[in-house]
User: Fold this.
Amino acid sequence: MGLLALFRKTSSTASVAKERLRIIVAQERSARGSPDFLPLLRRELLEVIHKYVNVDPSAVQINLGHEDGHEVLELSVSLPEAPRGR
Amino acid sequence: MAEIIVVTSGKGGVGKTTTSASIACGLAQRGKRVAVVDFDIGLRNLDLIMGCERRVVYDFVNVIQGDCGLKQALIKDKRVDTLYVLAASQTRDKDALTSEGVRRVLDELAAEGFEYIVCDSPAGIEKGAHLAMYFADRAVVVVNPEVSSVRDSDRILGLLASKTLRAEQGNGGVKEHLLLTRYNPRRVASGEMMSVDDVKEILGLDVIGVVPESPDVLSASNAGAPVILNVESDASRAYEDAVARLLGETLPLRFVEEPKRSFFARMFGG
Assistant:
């Protein structure tokens, strides 16, 4: 690196690239093994839940994990504080 | 027993055909009998890079469809004795390539005594790319130190691990290697480009070669001679090293450090 470079404003874009890739690659790898129906299942579940409770789309989490040799489908719905009036 | 090597990447324009041509040529220069096959049906370009475009009479699809024999379609390279090219067809019918047809041609190439069959994959993850990798024993994943190329390579690694014959048979899968192209050590040193180690760490694979960014690559494709034949070029030496590593030699990586510059150039930056 030259002397002039010391006075130039330098930010390492390569490290930004590496960090972004590290995250997206990990995310895509974890989605790779899961069955194709998960996104559709999530959407339909959301529709059903929405009929009764006004939940935010991001409040429904679906995860497929492995536990003691069998697959576990984990569904987590965080309900809003005040349910819709009936 | 022929070894089938697929050269793949997912992303287009990263140097698959350049790499296929140079690796095939390098293996042949070491006396191996090599066939290099273009799987990019509809967009053939390996013939141009190899400089045999005017000698293509029959192509890969002609052989599959039985219009001619394999020997009639193989083009013998004029520079290296043991090197042959099988061109892709220019048909727009993508279904011309069938799994059964590809298997038959690869078997026939092996029966002809070819020791290495280099499959030049098209970009993308469609049928051509799938069939190029399906029968492979080894994969050379070509990657540029750039975000979209690295991400696409990871996608391809996922496919190699699941959608190949070796993966389905469960006998160890396809052996995968990374080959970095368009590497610019000066930009790596200044933090503008990801390093070999960065890419290696993200993708978790060993690196079989690092080809520096070089004007010689364009000159080579202009002339229709694989860049490995230009012995003056750093790109050629980098490909020769990659070929040696493919054959099991252990060599340190070259051309990954910034070349030494003069005192004056260092003082005032470049």
About this structure: The interface with chain A takes residues 145-147, 150-151, 154-155, 158, 188-195, 198, 201-203, 265-270 of chain B (CB under 8 Å). The first helix of chain B runs from residue 16 to 29.
